[in-house]
Amino acid sequence: MLLPLVQVNVKYIPDSLCRASTILNVAVIYPTELNDGRETHVKELMLETMSNFDEESIRLLELAEEIKDWKLYDLPNTPTWFKGRAGLLGDAAHPILPYSAQGGAQAIEDAATLGIMFPPQTKASDVHERLKLYFLMRRERVEYVQDFGRGYTYGTLGPLDRKEFARVVFGHDAWEEAEKAFSGRTVNEIAV
To answer: How far apart are CA 114 and CA 106, in angstroms?
Structure first.
């Protein structure tokens, strides 16, 4: 089930320079239900969404020569990331909206955790239990990051939320946490 994004209340336009500073990439989120599928309406929809923004932001959009419309979709959290001896990681397991800038970082943390969970001598008969441990160890953190991305995208975060998010995200060592949590324990020992 895909959930289209809705209008945000944040009066901020993320941007970045591209192609040796010859192009300015600007992201504007507007309600998908306003778009009838015609590219010609995108600029008008964005200007409508930004009508209460500052004059400079509005002028920036008015001057835009080319506008591309890329849709973002939010997916509900998945109930599990494994089945039998097959497991998922990164966006395949837990897609994250781009505004938390954590999609790749969470995939790396997944890989570090799996690296601890699956040393070279791992038996095939242990794979299912270890994937379950991986899921139990990572799920809460990943869902926190997903929820932050949703809050940022939908405009429901305050400044304290961002500070707490930075503390949680940048103060974490996935390898170290996996070593401490795993240490040869079973699913039942970690779930407690």
So the answer is: 12
Residue 95 has pLDDT above 80, yes or no: yes
d(CA 84, CA 13): 44
Let me know the angle formed at the C-alpha of 43 by 42 and 48, rounded to the nearest 5 degrees. 100
Which residue matches tokens 């707490």? Answer: 164
DSSP 8-state symbol, 153: H
- Do 148 and 96 form a contact (C-beta atoms < 8 A)? no
H-type alpha helices, 31-90: 42-49, 55-63
CA distance 14 to 28: 8
Mean pLDDT confidence for 56-69:
80
- Asked if 50 and 58 count as a contact pair (C-beta separation under 8 A), the reply is yes
> Which neighbouring-strand residues pair with 24?
17
State how far the Cα of 109 lies from the Cα of 113, in Å rounded to an integer. 6
pLDDT in tens, 114-146: 999 898 889 999 999 999 999 999 999 999 999
> Tens digit of pLDDT for each residue in 154-163?
667 766 677 8
What local confidence, expressed as pLDDT, does residue 150 receive? 82
